[in-house]
């Protein structure tokens, strides 16, 4: 006898008309062939439901595929970066260091210093890369094309814009690094190209432009635009390109070597001995064997770890679970809608396997379409982002487009499998299909399995305990790399909670006797019709669990950031920094005049640091010193310490959780944060004492006392109202080896002085008056003691009140030097927008899930609705019932989701917050993790979203049901 399923197929093959004459394999193939054709027809007939399933599968697949493409594209290899670093050159050399180097084949991994570098014939000491291009050409036997970066500023539409300039002339034959997009190449000084970054910043692409470089105005002519690659492979951050530097005497830079043979490893090592860091195209493409490297260099090479395998495993597991749960309600809808047709087929001889094939075939058809579409869209999104320089730089996709084909295919297969797994549960239930009950319109889920409940309880408990244990272990030891174990335990927790859902729904239904009628009917319907309620509850549970986990982790991290935040100035005051780290008297006067022209009456005071004589501290180009110099030490000497100990505490043994050396707590050799001496004008220092409610100390400060901040838990530095301050000098010869040298061994001209002092408690609030330092000194006292100072910033105070954001912007636009400013606003949360976006995404997701399940419930209750209408109930009653269905499913899923999400939220908060830093001293601290539970947000979400779903479900009840004769 031919089954109903075979007769329902559009055109069954002739060999399927007599199944009793076919082999088992033939019957299997025939059953699947018919099921797939029926699935295709059902997909075409129910486009809305099919589209929902496709979206639920395709969206996570697209996101993960895009993440894979973005991750691979962001990982710019050293070979991929060759065009941006040296174009078509054979090598790129960085400005030499005074010491010989030993580098890895890829210098980005690391270099090590050694003895004094060998001299370079014809080298101009202190000269730029342009001045020394000839020396490098003669040394290497190749054409050396110099590069040099400079800072400038310009004014655009009344605002000040910082500009990064690249001095580079490609005309000797460099290609690939710079591509002309319009105009021509600059040929002489005063002509520039505007790069992509400059176009985005609003620089003109033609005409003239006035720049301020090295405290002088320079008029330049724009002759074209160009795309410039950075040394990391992506678009350069340089705004303009000029053929020669604005200031030829600027030290630093590098050279691209053109022509000649490739630069081999032996030549690289030879150039290292002369202080050059060498990026060789040949060595990057064909690195030497490990046997050619020293043990120290080989150990640095081993740190380059590729974790794409872990990323794919984690992402694939999450995709499988999330997609399965999200698409589950849609397949429950499909199976329930076909229940009567499947029961009719079973009554006419269709086997259980054939019934299951019909449901699974739809999952296969839709899963293949959705997963394939998601993968294609994910790759397409990566391609589009890579083509947009702004988006690519924003997302860090700076390299060439790189599609991991194997990973994308694996993701696609996983997505297809998730659709099939989601359909397995309703397919398996067809083996217990009550044919008579379904034909009569009565369908109730069988009694929930106690075994399933027990397994779910064990899995959830073990998953939760293991998750907390792993997180606690990671936070205590600081280790990493347990991502896969964490994901596995999280999946066990979620799946176990889902397995608890059937029994919980039954328990809720039994305990609903005191609820209003509509809610009581909804909870009992959810308990009876678990085949459609459980998938909906599971999907809502998973979504809310992820949201809960994210909110707890982000809220805890934000609370830690708030606790660790230490203000760097009084609230509403502005700090102005110089571009080179220094502000000379002329720059101070100019900035003050410009500010007061914008806002008369501003209090503007210089803020200085002790000058320790280090030439690298305020170097504009970062070049290493080549001539001997002296370091100056001005340190407070704690009780029990010698002056030399404040420069270098040789007896201190650091540990992972150690405080700073007890003798190096304050001064030019202070270790950690907050160890600086800050020098202020007497008026500004007195204003800050008033802000600290220390008016009684003003007289002592006027008499020459310094103000010392005492962090909680640290010993006082005062003795008889004084602090002991040492001064001394240490000669440094950068040409000598720096390995294993005691900085205090050559300490000279040591002098100690007892300076009167007042001590104030130092905490997060009072630290604002100290500019993040530890001691405040008036300029009069610093001059009297002979302490050398350098003005590094200005502080701006408005007597009328805190400086507004508008005034701060106008002040920033008003200065024409390369300076920048910040206004103290206190701690500002960075999570507000992120949380709002997350709430919006999850709200939309849960509304779709809830309304899908509610629509199924109402479709199955058409007979009940018709009976109620025949008895006189109006549209309002039916709307209340629909609203109750949506509300009950949403609340149950949301409450369970919050309960489940708390555990991984705590697990994430442990490693995020267990290790912190003292905001005053910067010392690491170990303590209990910070846990913040955003109960108001979660409670509002768990109630508001079901309420909105209930309103939408009620609004969807419009037409009256057909009052037909009931079967029972």
Automatic annotation (TrEMBL):
Pfam families: FtsX
Example of a GO cellular component annotation carried by this entry: plasma membrane
Keywords, sorted A to Z: Cell membrane, Membrane, Transmembrane, Transmembrane helix
Domain ABC3 transporter permease C-terminal: 316-434, 837-959
Transmembrane segments: 50-72, 311-333, 363-385, 405-427, 448-470, 490-512, 533-553, 831-859, 880-910, 930-957
Compartment(s) of residence: Cell membrane
Superkingdom to which the source organism belongs: Bacteria
Predominant localisation class: membrane
Entry keyword annotation includes Nuclease: no
Membrane topology: Multi-pass membrane protein
Coiled-coil regions, chain positions: none
Record keyword NAD present: no
Name this protein carries in UniProt: ABC3 transporter permease C-terminal domain-containing protein
Organism: Knoellia subterranea KCTC 19937
Lineage of the species this protein comes from: Bacteria, Bacillati, Actinomycetota, Actinomycetes, Micrococcales
